Amino acid sequence: MALMNSETNPKRPFSDVIERLRSVGLRPTRQRLALAKLLFEGVDRHITAEKLHIEAQEASIRVSLATVYNTLHQFTDVGLLREIAVDSSRSYFDTNNSDHHHFFFEESGDLADIEDDQIDVARLPEPPAGTHIERVDVVIRVIEDK
Amino acid sequence: MALMNSETNPKRPFSDVIERLRSVGLRPTRQRLALAKLLFEGVDRHITAEKLHIEAQEASIRVSLATVYNTLHQFTDVGLLREIAVDSSRSYFDTNNSDHHHFFFEESGDLADIEDDQIDVARLPEPPAGTHIERVDVVIRVIEDK
DNA sequence: GTGTTTGCAAAGTGTTTGCAATTTA
DNA sequence: TAAATTGCAAACACTTTGCAAACAC
User: Fold this and answer.
1) A24 to each of A12, A14, A15, A78, how far by Cα in Å?
2) How far does the CA of A62 sit from the C1' of C8, in Å?
3) 3 state SS of B91
4) What is the domain extent for residue A134?
């Protein structure tokens, strides 16, 4: 069965995903394992709950949309994912949680990473009294040439 | 009547608001005038449709929520407002459409301006082929010290 | 066995839309 | 009076929730 094939990506065998979930205090259930495999195997990605749900169904993984939402939030809470705000109508989740920024394609709604060393954000202002900086997000909004 | 008092802010008398709307091709209706006054008189602000609707009601301005949404989008289309994406569950509109960035207070959902000269965003990466940069948004997310 | 997780359907929230009535030019 | 605008209620898209059944340890 597809679910038991842990050798697709030799860098992250099945047992690693189990360990990864365990280490953040999440039980490695069938649904969480399958979603983690979709999310973390292969290249970094930017995805919405709806899209991940469709991908799961295409991969014959039975999981409800509610569980996809719950799982995305749980993964975000424990730092496996990062939520990105670019579009007020949808939540995007990013499997790359290193320091980086984004191109946002207004027309398609797609995102692309900008590695941290490709941009300089310098001379940050002091955060308002009583607060501290949690994160700095740079979004470069691009549109297609006409 | 409150609506006819154009002298609250001497810098933008009533007739200016009318002209401002006309010049962007929007008929100066009662609703648009009243919302424009709430939005553009006084200091720059960051507001959601829901909040503006409540403000309007508090000011005894009869306007439906649908019209508030329509008006905010029309004002955005003609460049009187800018939409800011910081929270995937709500749309924020900014009456300051000069070049600037934002602090976002995660807990309260409030926004504060960061003037353009208070931050350096340098060495922007090339936009992907076939696209051009429409805007660069920097959001500094802050949380309260514990 | 005990506590956790899941799926479902229902409810919730923010937003948009269709259309008749009203207003503007 | 012709065209634009409004308000209402219904529809919508996305997301969360309550709770019984299924599962993990």
Assistant:
1) 16, 16, 14, 6
2) 13
3) coil
4) 15-142
- Please check whether residue A106 lies inside any domain of the structure: yes
Residue A67 lies inside a defined structural domain of this protein: yes
Q: B4 to chain A, minimum CA–CA distance in Å?
A: 35
- CATH number of the domain encompassing residue B113: 1.10.10.10
pLDDT, tens only, B104-146: 999 899 999 999 999 999 999 999 999 999 999 999 999 999 8
Nearest residue in chain B measured CA to CA from A111: B128
The structural domain count of chain B equals 1
Report pLDDT digits (tens) over A74-117.
999 999 999 999 999 999 999 998 999 999 999 889 999 999 99
Q: Which nucleotides of chain C does any protein CB come within 7 A of? A: 4-10, 13-18, 23-25
Are A142 and B128 in contact (CB < 8 Å)?
Answer: yes
**Dmax over Cα atoms in chain A, in whole Å?**
56
User: Which protein residue's Cα is closest to nucleotide C7 at C1'?
Assistant: A64
Does any domain span residue B120?
yes
User: Looking at the domain assignment, is residue B69 inside a domain?
Assistant: yes
Per-residue pLDDT at B146: 82
Residue B22 CB lies within 7 Å of the nucleic strand D? no
Query: According to DSSP H, which parts of B2-103 are helical?
Result: 14-23, 30-40, 49-58, 65-77
Give this prediction's pTM. 0.86
Which nucleotide C1' is nearest A89 CA? D14
With a cut of 80, say whether residue B10 has pLDDT above it.
Answer: no
CA angle A44, A50, A56 (to 5 degrees): 70
